[in-house]
């Protein structure tokens, strides 16, 4: 063993990083379940189901921001269509949740209500084996990954890049949104999937089930962060960064950027699909609006606000923007979009490195002041 090379965990994060992850895990797995399940509802310290759902939703968004950072922050590929992969994962798992309703729907049939309303007599082909949890869990990974691989292969092989690639991804997600709005596609039309009852035969609205989904979401978020950190600190990560900074030089060095870009692009789509699958049972709905171009643009804003190319920044950005969105949509619903636009413009002009970059500059300034005081 080479004792000069640090252990894997040491390479991923330093003491401060692991301390922050440990504190987050302690709050997530210890404090939140205690406040939600043990503290009485009439106590001021009780954490309501509303907050559990909101935080769980934001953690799902943080996964999407992390996936976006891998391709935009580290590889230089700006996608304006990542909402498509998020929605595909949600729909893939939503089919299973709809089958779990059984005969408890409005029409008391063993088919989803929208199918009964449309007078369908049997499930369409894409619903085959959708009553199996593991089959739908596999679709959550395979469907977004396959769509991303096919699209990315032809786009990257044709050397489409920059603003042209961004426009094509936005057109792709917009076309998919229009397709899913159609009733004959078998995905509920504009209403999508909702009114879920059970998951793995457990009632989905009980506090225990909600907490289980919340904890699973937090665990997956931490796992995705460690996976992303492993990638960007490896040789693969260095190649991806080189592709971002000077793709032509990478080609002259003997590397084929196609397969590196295709790998990280497909992986990013899969991570978005997993986030969508965890989002649906917690929020209770999935519909074509998740594929809207505006949603995909908002994902890019999360990354920009937090600080792209940092991993932890996009997670913070997703929390900041969506936390502000929850407050603004309740207090000033008509001004939310204006605030979002001003936030993006302000970050672009004054905080090009995002919140993480601002924090780094503040720490450097404080260290400089401390050093000057010691000299004096």
Task: Describe the 3D structure.
- The chain is mostly helical and about 375 residues long.
- It has a domain at about 50-290.
- It has helices spanning about 10, 15-40, 50-70, 80-100, 115, 135-155, 160-180, 205-230, 235-250, 255-285, 295-305, 310-330, 335-350, 355-375, and strands at about 195, 200, 200-205, 285.
- The chain has a two-stranded antiparallel sheet with strand order 1-4. Strands 2-3 form a two-stranded antiparallel ribbon.
- Helix 3 (about 50-70) crosses helix 12 (about 310-330), helix 9 (about 235-250) crosses helix 10 and helix 11 (about 295-305) runs parallel beside helix 14 (about 355-375).
- The protein is globular and about 80 Å long.
- It starts with 7 loop residues before the first helix and ends with a helix.
Terminal residue distance: 47 Å
**Number of helices, counting only DSSP H or I runs of 4 residues or more:** 14
Overall pLDDT score = 90
Question: How do the strands line up in the largest sheet?
Answer: 1-4
Apparent shape: globular
Q: What proportion of the residues is helical, as a percent range? A: over 70%
Order of helices and strands: HHHHHHHEEEHHHEHHHH
Main β-sheet description? 2 strands, antiparallel
Work out the number of β strands. Answer: 4
User: Unreliable runs, pLDDT <50, ≥5 residues?
Assistant: 1-10
Oligomer status = single chain
Binned strand content: under 5%
Given the helix and strand composition, which structural class is it?
mainly alpha
Radius of gyration: 22 Å
